Amino acid sequence: MILKNYKGFFASLVVAAIVVLAFAQSGCGVYKFKDVSIPDSISVVRIGIIQNKASYVNPQLAPELTERLKQKVVSQTRLKQTNGDDGDWDINCTITSYSFATSGVSNQRANTNRLNVGVHIEVRDNHSQKTNKYDVTRSFDYDGTLALQQAEQGLKSEMLRSLSDDIFNRIFSNW
pLDDT at position 138, please? Predict the structure, then answer.
C-alpha cells in the first residue's frame, strides 16, 4: 500500500517536472525580439543632425533627439561614429510631423489631448550605394487642461526616449 502511494507521488512529480521543463523551453516566443543586426562590413556610421520640417517646430526636439540617438548607437552597438564622409552608413532623420489633437472629451471639455510626432529615416549604405527609407510615428497623450508648451515640457523625456528607441529599432532590428 505504501509503495503504491509512492509510485503515484513519483509519477505525479515526473509529470510536473516535464510540464515545467516544456514550459521553460518554450518561453514567451511571441514577445522575443531579435538582437541588433548590423552587417559585418559596417563599422563606422555618420548620424546627421536631425532636421525639423514639421509645420509646428519644437526647437528643442531635433537637437536633443540627435544626441539621444547618437548615445544609443554608441552604447548599444559596436559601431564607431564619424562626422566626416568616411562612414559606412549615413543616417539622416527628419521630423516630418508634429501635431496635436483632442483625443478624449468629457462634459463638453477636452479631457485628453494627443501629440503626434512623425520621423522619416534614411539610411544610406555607402558600399552598395543603396538607401533604405523608414518612417516612425509615435503618439503621446497629455492632460487636456495643459497648454501645449506645458505638455511638451512634461512629455520631453518620454518623447526623447520613445522616439530614439523607435528610430534605433527601425534601423538596427529585424522586427
Answer: 97
27 close to 161: Cβ distance less than 8 angstroms: no
The C-alpha atoms of residue 52 and residue 63 are separated, in whole angstroms, by: 9
In this structure, are residues 65 and 162 in contact, taking their beta carbons and an 8 Å threshold?
A: no
Three-state DSSP state, 7: helix
Instruction: State pLDDT tens for residues 73-97.
Output: 999 999 999 999 899 999 999 999 9
Q: Cell for 138? A: 509615435
Do residues 73 and 30 touch, judged by C-beta distance below 8 A? Answer: no
| In the block, residue with C-alpha cell 532636421 | 51
Q: How far from the centroid of its chain's Cα atoms is residue 32's Cα?
A: 15
Angle between helices 61-76 and 148-172 (to 10 degrees): 30
- Cβ within 8 Å of residue 121, ≥6 positions away: 91, 92, 93, 133, 134, 135, 136, 167, 170, 171
pTM over 0.70: yes
C-beta neighbour count of 86 within 10 angstroms: 9
